[in-house]
């Protein structure tokens, strides 16, 4: 009897060991191509990471679970929640690196193609946070053209449009990728004139980035811009907009001055931004703003070299 009992225990032990090996095999098989680490199957715990109950910064294993869940599910509710969680975590520099190293940027980036506008917005928000990291921008730049198309063709003043503008603004903080927007400058000015206050401010942030780069000066000055642009220099315009359009004028003029081009008549066509900024109507508006009631506005006008 004792021998039979021993044989039984050995058999049970072998079954447990085999089960453990199988579990380890299931966890370690099928590495995602190009991504180090485990390919974790979506589980309830992965979905739980999206329910808002996790306030701490997620670790690499949790982020990998979320990315696999995002890649494998077609449930729009789960996709949106996963993008929000990933976007929130991408606000932390350590996770900006981790998400890139886990191959997460293409997974998140693919969701800007989703017809669901809320999912598209959340994907853009996540990419926006990830784009703070310069190395991430190298991978995100492949989406710039599509984001531009969506921004200019989508609903005016929509959440998706603003999210796209924020991403483009982050992508143009340095000069590295600004050239990718060269063909969209006229569209930016059109959006500036047609959008509401929030849209105007976001477009101006983007234009200010471009205006600091001398390599973009000709593209800005040559853009076809409606004459209503000069109304942004009226004294009653909201301060957050007025200061930014004055700074735009200042940056462009400074670039021209540094290159010794203020005294030379550039070859820009009529109807371009150049003719608006350096025409008599704009000069009159600048002279009037010298007497503006706000000290910051008055100071900004005096900082423009021509005035």
Automatic annotation (TrEMBL):
Entry membrane topology: Single-pass membrane protein
Record keywords: Membrane, Mitochondrion, Mitochondrion outer membrane, Transmembrane, Transmembrane helix
InterPro entries reported in the protein's UniProt record: ARM-like (IPR011989), ARM-rpt_dom (IPR006911), ARM-type_fold (IPR016024), Armcx_regulator (IPR051303)
Domain Armadillo repeat-containing, chain residue ranges per copy: 58-277
GO biological process, one term: negative regulation of intrinsic apoptotic signaling pathway by p53 class mediator
Protein name: Armadillo repeat-containing protein 10
Higher taxonomy: Eukaryota, Metazoa, Chordata, Craniata, Vertebrata
Superkingdom of origin organism: Eukaryota
Residue intervals passing through the bilayer: 6-25
Localization (cell): Mitochondrion outer membrane
Gene Ontology cellular component terms for the protein in this record: mitochondrial outer membrane
């Amino acid at each position: 009897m004792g021998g039979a009992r021993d044989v039984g225990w050995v058999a049970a032990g072998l079954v447990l060991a085999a089960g453990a090996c199988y579990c380890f095999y299931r966890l370690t098989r099928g590495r995602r191509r190009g991504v180090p680490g485990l390919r974790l199957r979506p589980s309830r715990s992965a979905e739980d990471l999206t329910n808002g109950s996790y306030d701490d910064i997620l670790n690499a294993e949790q982020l990998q679970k979320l990315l696999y869940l995002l890649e494998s599910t077609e449930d729009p509710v789960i996709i949106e929640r996963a993008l929000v969680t990933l976007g929130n975590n991408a606000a932390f520099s350590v996770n900006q690196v981790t998400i890139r190293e886990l191959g997460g940027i293409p997974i998140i980036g693919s969701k800007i193609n989703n017809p669901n506008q809320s999912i598209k917005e959340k994907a853009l928000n996540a990419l926006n946070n990830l784009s703070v990291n310069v190395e991430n921008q190298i991978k995100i730049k492949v989406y710039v053209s599509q984001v531009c198309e969506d921004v200019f063709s989508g609903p005016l003043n929509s959440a998706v449009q603003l999210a796209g503008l924020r991403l483009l603004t982050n992508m143009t903080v340095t000069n590295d990728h600004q050239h990718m927007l060269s063909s969209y400058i006229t569209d930016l000015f059109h959006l500036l004139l047609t959008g509401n206050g929030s849209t105007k401010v976001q477009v101006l942030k983007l234009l200010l980035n471009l205006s600091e780069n001398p390599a973009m000066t000709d593209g800005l000055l040559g853009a076809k811009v409606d004459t209503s642009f000069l109304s942004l220099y009226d004294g009653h315009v909201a301060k957050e907009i007025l200061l930014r359009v004055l700074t735009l004028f200042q940056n462009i003029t400074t670039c021209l001055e540094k290159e010794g081009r203020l005294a030379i008549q550039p070859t820009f066509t009529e109807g371009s931004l150049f003719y608006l900024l350096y025409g008599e109507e704009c000069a009159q508006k600048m002279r009037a703003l010298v007497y503006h009631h706000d000290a910051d506005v008055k100071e900004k006008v005096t900082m423009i070299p021509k005035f």
